[in-house]
Amino acid sequence: MTNDSPQRHKEHKQQRELKSPFKPECRLPARLLRRRALFSVLCVLCAFAVPVRSLLGGSSLVTWRKQATGFEADPGATDRPLPVGSLQKPFVAKAWAAAHPGESPPRVLCDDAAGCWLRAGHGEVGLLRALAMSCNTYFRRLAAATPPSGLAAMLTSEGFTVPQPVTPEAAIGLPGPEGLVRIRPSTLLDAYSRLVRAPWPVGEPIRQQVLTGLREAAQSGGTASGLGHRGYWAKTGTIGALDGSPLRTSGLALAVDDTGWAILGLLDPGTGREAAAALA
């Protein structure tokens, strides 16, 4: 047996350190190694499109429902007016149709210079794909081509509280200089129930395109595809965090069927796409 002295242990340690590409002082503390391992796990989860916040239990979902028996909400969910972001877009299309009777909706190029939420842009889109992908560029163009008085009147008739003067940005659910458009959850559910069941007095062919776009939103590739159920019209929206926290968002998703039954979900924090998945 070899009787290793403390001096010999020290020599062996020095030799191992010379062979290593890392100096001892560059070795990471255990807590940093654990953080790096956690970050790697989160990256893998993101690569598989898993809503990480939901997995970690950091988001809360509340829902409001329009039933045959009336309006229902989760405990603690109030019916106070709230901003709903892109859930306003179908009604911008309705206002445009009323202002352009007999016309077909335009096609719009959404590229990386357009300032859409998708930085690379959605390419050239018409009304159907613009709704399915919730293209800000397209609906900003529709809103800009509609008289502000017509926009305000249409949104107000559907139950929205509209700041004056209404801008194209505010009309599609973005912050404007006069504030955000808001609506009560119960009123929004009623508006979507009418949308899928009642013909428009002007622009009924455009309503049919809106409905097709909302169907596509709930299918593969659409912003509401996380619902995972066929037979629904659906729309999502992402807004600034309701509690005012910077660099955070709240997500909304709404689904409605042909009977007029509808559900609205609010995921906080989250995005509209994540809210749709949370409703599944």
Written description of the protein model:
The structure is a single chain. By secondary structure, the protein is of the alpha+beta class. The chain contains eleven helices and seven strands. The protein has helices at 6-19, 30-47, 52-55, 89-99, 127-133, 136-144, 148-157, 168-171, 185-197, 204-217, 272-279, and strands at 60-67, 70-73, 108-110, 123-125, 233-240, 249-256, 262-268. The strands form two sheets. It has a five-stranded antiparallel beta sheet with strand order 2-1-7-6-5, sandwiched between helices. A two-stranded antiparallel sheet has the order 3-4. Helix 4 (89-99) crosses helix 7 (148-157) and helix 5 (127-133) runs parallel beside helix 10. It is globular, with a radius of gyration of 26 Å. The protein starts with 5 loop residues before the first helix and ends with a helix.
Sum up the structure in keywords.
7 strands, two-stranded antiparallel ribbon, 280 residues, 11 helices, five-stranded antiparallel sheet, alpha+beta
* Approximate strand percentage: 5-15%
The dominant shape is: globular
Q: Helices and strands, in N-to-C order?
A: HHHEEHEEHHHHHHEEEH
Q: How are the strands of the biggest sheet laid out side by side? A: 2-1-7-6-5
> How many E-type strands?
7
Helix share of residues?
Answer: 40-55%
Strand pairing plus helix content: what structural class? alpha+beta
Largest sheet: 5 strands, antiparallel
Average pLDDT score? 85
Q: What is the tally of helical segments?
A: 11
The CA-CA distance between the termini, in Å, is: 67 Å
The radius of gyration computed from the alpha-carbon positions, rounded to a whole number of angstroms, is 26 Å
